[in-house]
Design a protein that fits this description.
Blueprint lengths: L15 H9 L4 H10 L3 E2 H7 L5 H13 L3 E6 L5 E6 L1 H9 L1 H20 L1
Antiparallel strand pairs: 1-3, 2-3
Helix pairs in contact: 2-5
């Protein structure tokens, strides 16, 4: 289930950031995007191992939401035992690229804070 839009504007969004946050909101979604970018075509169990601390329920829920939002692709293979793989769609790749500057900002902030702690 995707996040519901807010009333007040024709599509429920105030700006582009609002639209993006609707797709990536939550503690784990950005980390799922990163994991699928770094390790494409992952099965559920492998993806869960890449995200220590996430529960199966939360991962399954977020993957369903991200699939509904068009950023994650789920491919089910007709095999025994059944095999399902997750990967990023083209929109998911673009979203991940857009998050690059945010990741750089976070790395810079962590580095600056570490240097400040050592100096203090």
């Amino acid at each position: 289930m995707t996040t519901l839009n807010r009333p007040g504007t024709p599509d429920g969004h105030v700006c582009g950031i609002d639209t993006a946050m609707e797709v990536i909101g939550g503690r784990w979604k950005v980390l799922i995007l990163w994991a699928l970018h770094e390790h494409p075509h992952r099965r559920f169990g492998a993806l869960r191992r890449l995200l220590p601390g996430i529960t199966e329920k939360v991962l399954a829920s977020h993957l369903r939401e991200m699939e509904a939002d068009g950023v994650v692709r789920r491919v089910s293979y007709d095999e025994v035992p059944p095999r399902v793989e997750y990967s990023l769609t083209e929109d998911g790749e673009h979203l991940n690229e857009a998050l690059g500057p945010l990741a750089a900002w976070g790395r810079g902030r962590t580095t600056a804070r570490d240097v400040g702690e050592r100096a203090g």
